[in-house]
Design a protein that fits this description.
Elements lengths: L6 E7 L10 H13 L4 E6 L6 H7 L4 E6 L6 H11 L9 E5 L2 E5 L9 H15 L11 E7 L7 H16 L4 E6 L9 H4 L4 E6 L6 H10 L4 H9 L9 E3 L2 E5 L9 H12 L11 E2 L3
Parallel strand pairs: 1-2, 1-3, 3-5, 4-11, 6-7, 6-8, 8-10
Antiparallel strand pairs: 4-5, 9-10
Length: 290
Amino acid sequence: SPDFSDAALLLVGHGSTRNAEAASPTSQHAGELRRRRIFGQVLECFLKQEPLLTTVWREVSAPRIFIVPLFTSEGYFTEQVIPRKLGLDEGHGSPRCQQCGGQTLHYCNPVGTHPGMTEVVLARAREVVAQNPFPRAPKPADCALFIAGHGTGSDENSRKSVEKQARLIAAQSDYAEVHAVFIEEEPRVGDCYKLARVRNLVMVPFFISDGLHAAEDIPVLLGEPGQAVRERLGQGQPAWRNPTEKHGKRLWYASSVGTDPRIADIILERVKEAVQPNPTHSSRQSVPSP
């Protein structure tokens, strides 16, 4: 394995000023990677809450800095916002490498587009059914698997990573059906009941955190009353009870993929990719020191 003892790892999360849970996975994975003692430093930072990316980056003195975006797709935040804050050129793809004063910045691909995410989705689906059998755990062949993403008309890449996972899992798994559904685009999350031909449904949110979208918006779109969802969350209870029967279907709802412990290994893979020769995606330029 490459030696990263002289390097700092920066995990960049979206963050939120409205929901503290949005930061939890970033801190979780940073803590795990600190425990492994692979890097000289492991730091978490965010775009929308403290500690901010621009603040943390300026405090790092390591000669090499690896920046890994904890995002599910290549899109506006990973291709424009984060590179702009780091002084990198936008739209050159990732991973990329640039000199910044006496430091080398390695900007890595987002975790959500890594091939290992397919196993994370499948593991989430297996685990939520096995942990909540009713009256017994159905086999994948008796289930329709739904992967739920955000979707947005302003960035087509937002849905591409979800659709890609659906295609991969449909080709290699035993699930009776596999569908991609979205909060803000068609097909919608709530369409799962009419899309599924089988009785048992398993939905895995393709989000980094169990924040507002995964914890509140999706359960409401699946048919839970908004007031009941908010009350359960306020009491520290899950918004969705596994499984719940609606419209003649039985649905299990998993935790977000980004909270899975396996993400720490995917982060390491992204870092290792960044030091492999890749002339198609790597450029070395000079940018001003922060």
